[in-house]
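User: Just a sanity check before I run the rest of the batch. Below are the structure tokens for the first item. I only need the designed sequence back.
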């Protein structure tokens, strides 16, 4: 989709509100992103506020996808790894607004997150995704390898347990 841009985050109230709405909508639609439905706006706001503070400290990069001034997707690259894992980064909170799904936005966000990780000298990316209603197909298309499954790992947003699938990918010149 050509009008979509991955532009750096502007840490304004307007941007935070769009992130909050995106998270609430994603969870309501069954997306496994660590929260239960219904997700209260204040909980979502507290999550993003903390996440953006961590981003300001350089511990993570929150990447948004924009259609003009509308935030239509996001992914987070976690950089704050233990001292013995300076080469690793983790992908989290990948989500695309419901009415923008299936247009390649998550793929673009993942490619950009990988590029940022390489820029920061990281050579290994890891992530996990729910076995049911997760995004394993997308990650496999992007070259991630399945390490394994942990059964009954988390509750789905509307209840009931699901396993989690752990993925990894070597990036850059690794
Ligand atoms: C997963 C999600 C981010 C995909 O967003 P999207 O912008 O629609 O993804 P894309 O358009 O880039 O899809 C790229 C490809 O992956 C495939 N894909 C997308 N979501 C998928 C899923 N859940 N399972 C399997 N394949 C998927 C698409 O069919 C597409 O394949 P194609 O290129 O052959 O058509 C979106 O469905 C979402 O927000 N889900 C809820 C939150 C979630 O589960 N996030 C992942 C947490 S780990």
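Assistant: Here's the designed sequence for the first item:
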């Amino acid at each position: 989709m050509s009008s979509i841009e991955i532009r750096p985050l502007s840490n304004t109230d307007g941007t935070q509100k769009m992130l909050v709405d995106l998270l609430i909508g994603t969870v309501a639609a069954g997306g496994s992103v660590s929260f239960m439905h219904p997700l209260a706006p204040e909980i979502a706001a507290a999550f993003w506020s903390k996440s953006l503070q961590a981003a300001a400290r350089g511990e993570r990069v929150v990447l948004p996808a924009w259609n003009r001034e509308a935030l239509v997707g996001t992914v987070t690259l976690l950089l704050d790894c233990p001292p013995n894992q300076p080469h690793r980064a983790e992908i989290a909170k990948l989500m695309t607004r419901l009415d923008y799904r299936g247009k390649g936005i998550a793929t673009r966000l993942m490619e950009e997150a990988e590029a940022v990780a390489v820029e920061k000298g990281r050579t290994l990316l890891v992530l996990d995704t729910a076995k049911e209603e997760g995004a394993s197909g997308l990650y496999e298309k992007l070259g991630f390898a399945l390490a394994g499954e942990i059964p009954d790992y988390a509750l789905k947003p509307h209840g009931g347990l699901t396993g989690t699938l752990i993925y990894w990918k070597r990036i850059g010149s690794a």
